[in-house]
Amino acid sequence: xxxxxxxxxxxxxxxxxxIWAQRFAFLALLAFAFALMLLSKAETGxxxxxRIVIVDSVAPxxxxxxxxxxxxxxxxxxxxxxxxxxxxxxxLRQENERLIRWMQTARxxxxxxxxxxxxxxxxxxxxxxxxxxxxxxxTGGGFFHSxxxxxxxxxxxxRGQAVVSRAGVVGRIxxxxxxxxxxLLLTDLNSRIPAIVESTGDRVIVTGNNTRWPGVTYLAxxxxxxxxxRVVTSGHGGVFPPGLPIxxxxxxxxxxxxxxxxxxxxxxxxxxxxxxxxEGILPPPEKVPAVEKTAPQAGPAK
Length: 302
Description:
This protein is of the alpha+beta class. It folds into two domains: 43-123; 131-283, Rod shape-determining protein MreC, domain 1 (Thrombin, subunit H, Beta Barrel). It is built from two helices and twelve strands, in the order H-H-E-E-E-E-E-E-E-E-E-E-E-E. A six-stranded antiparallel beta barrel has the order 1-2-5-4-3-12. Strands 8-7-6-9-10-11 form a six-stranded antiparallel beta sheet, with no helix packed on it. It is elongated, with a radius of gyration of 40 Å. Mean pLDDT is 78; it is low at 291-302.
């Protein structure tokens, strides 16, 4: 009987202890977390050394535990790469077959074209000599748009030559020094470039207006030009070869047509000067014939 009463008293004491533990467990954990936070902010030397020792002791265990994960990731990556390579191999094989067919067709057309040109006594176009120069200064302003490049007369650069980039037309050479030259940009007010609208075949003149968007003149009023149409050089004038991209139509209305140049001139760092061996529309000043002024003859004396 005494044993029974003792066990009941112990059980009766354990219940309140458990209840109080449950009530204050959250507060105890919160206080412990706050204490850890304060210790981490304290950054004492002992705490840092303890943290370093703990990290050093746990690092080998973490390294061993991470190896299976890394191995699984490598296996997964290898399987994925295998399927990707297999799909890419199939795509390249099909593309190679198409390219072989196109190559055979191109060879046949090349032979046919050469035969027809020989029969027509076709005069081939001149192959240009190109000089690549670096843009060293932007000499443009509110009234003119031009660039300065580090190539001049000693590099066979002449006035009137075409200046292009990988994207398309930049402008033409306006002034030439011994080691430098000034490029008149296509956006300059004095720039006029013969061009053609690819979609309609209309021959136009791309005219600079000292803004970032040159205009198009001599376009027929009933021309079906629309936004997005590409404008390229026509080859007239002997300066620019045909087919060089100039820009795309960004605005087309009854009153005006505006182009968005394909070359971002503000970010242009290099330019390419094309020499076709012709003077084009800008002969050197020394070759311009002088106009002889003659005095008017005196009439018969009355």
